[in-house]
Amino acid sequence: MTSKKLDYKIKLKSYDHALLDQASKEIVKVAKKSGANVSGPVPLPTRKTIYTVNRASNVDKKSREQFEIRIHKRMILVSKSTQQTMEALTRLDIAAGVEIEIKTYDN
What we know:
Layout: E1 6-14, H1 17-33, E2 37-54, E3 64-81, H2 83-91, E4 98-104
């Protein structure tokens, strides 16, 4: 029985870069253990959103506060993987707060 070799692109997003790095290390370790070729994790640009809010509702228009949210992203390319690789990746327990998106791609 021959198994088809698949290529996956895994994108990770999180507000906390430490959780993101830990999750990417676990994914790379599991993928390499199952015999797949791994490229990454590649850091993608961080999206920074700044919100400006008035401190008082009706006086002191010039008095404002600023808050920012940073979304950190990483990408991992897994090539020449088998069905066992995908099963191991789906069973992997990743910390809460890390969003994972897995897509197949062609070279």
